Amino acid sequence: MKEQYDCSKKMEHKGSSWHENCFTCNRCQQPIGTRSFVLKDGSNYCLPCYEKQFALQCVHCKKPITTGGVNYRDQPWHKECFVCISCKQQLAGQRFTSRDDFAYCLDCFCNLFAKKCASCTTPISGLGGSKYISFEQRQWHNDCFNCKRCCVSLVGRGFLTCRDDILCPDCGKDF
Fold first, then answer.
1. pLDDT over 80 (residue 5)
2. Which segments constitute the LIM zinc-binding domain (predicted)?
3. Taking residues 155-171, what's their average pLDDT?
4. Could you tell me which of 4, 5, 22 has the C-alpha nearest to residue 13?
């Protein structure tokens, strides 16, 4: 003898069938009906229960990460939450660096922490293999390391200093 169920609808998904009242979430036991659900390990979960039980939680906002996401220092982040600590620009898919466990876009990092060129005063990032000259607590971009008088490049050459200026040997002999 077959059991009688008081239901008018049959729910089907990928070859499986349930009575409407039997098609429930494995966690909260509420009928799923036509709401979104996830099948995991042979059990059905309504979307909110699935997210609570299985989804990674973003370190920043503490909400579930349902698609994509970023892993930084072995912690999950929404890509929208993984931003530069200074300017709030998204860092996912961008080059970035960190200091004191805070992530920075390259522009902010350079502006905040990089040494400044003694000639042009812009940051010296040292990124991408760019080279620089360092002498007595001052730094220069390779392209900026030039004689103050005649502008000849002093990279790989001898030079003299006169107060804050650098000079080639020819221009420096007058001092």
1. no
2. 1-55, 56-115
3. 87
4. 22
